Amino acid sequence: MKIDVIGDIHGCYEELQQLLVKLGYALTSDGWTHPDQRQLVFLGDLTDRGPDSLSVIRLVYQLVIEKGLAKYTPGNHCNKLYRYFLGNPVKIQHGLETTVREYVTLNDRERQKIKQQFITLYETADLYLELPQVNAIIAHAGIKQSLIGKKTKETKSFVLYGDTTGEVDENGRPIRKDWAQHYKGNRWIVYGHTPVLAPRIVNQTINIDTGCVFGNTLTAFRLPEEETVSVPSKQPYEADRFRSFD
Ligand code: MN
Predict the structure, then answer these.
(1) Distance 192 CA to ligand 1 centre (A)
(2) 3-241 has which fold?
(3) Where are the chain's structural domains?
(4) From the DSSP assignment, how many helices (H) and strands (E) are in the chain?
(5) SS3 of 217, please?
């Protein structure tokens, strides 16, 4: 098994297509396929903030649910969109407003269709993915060692929102701890969620959220090759969105 894990897309559909081409995938009548039977893995946050969230949902739905050619595990933005689609009271902010804006312009039939696709995608997804064939775990915001194998409430919160303290910084953003520093396992943990300017490898973990929606790059991590592949973003650059580690 050879895989390409794709970082946070956030509606950057054009960049996603460019990345797939760069990785050697081609759009055929079967959807995006790779001549070497590589498998795509989406680590969540498909939507919100970017220009074309619904096209990303359609693409991932087709590959994961219809064709069985890819895997998907949700991010915090996916969780919120899922709750929105269920009719739960969620605040339409932090990027959800862009996805909702696309959604409400559709006609009734199209709306029902995309809603059902996303609900199916979300409900059939695992909280995180264990891929023993490539010795890897894929989790949106990462996973600390003690939670691996435990599908509890704490695990759900960790894989969706990360290693948070519950406190916020001066900009109102959550203060995040650095679980990766304490990871001692030998399986790769591939994750995203916290935008960084370049893929960040700490121990056997890699953060591949290179902030495409904030104007940097969209990144994939290939296993077993242990290589990253990126394409430049077309979105405006927002320097203050990126976390630096000293
Ligand atoms: Mn994200």
Answers:
(1) 7
(2) Purple Acid Phosphatase; chain A, domain 2 (3.60.21)
(3) 3-241
(4) 6, 14
(5) strand
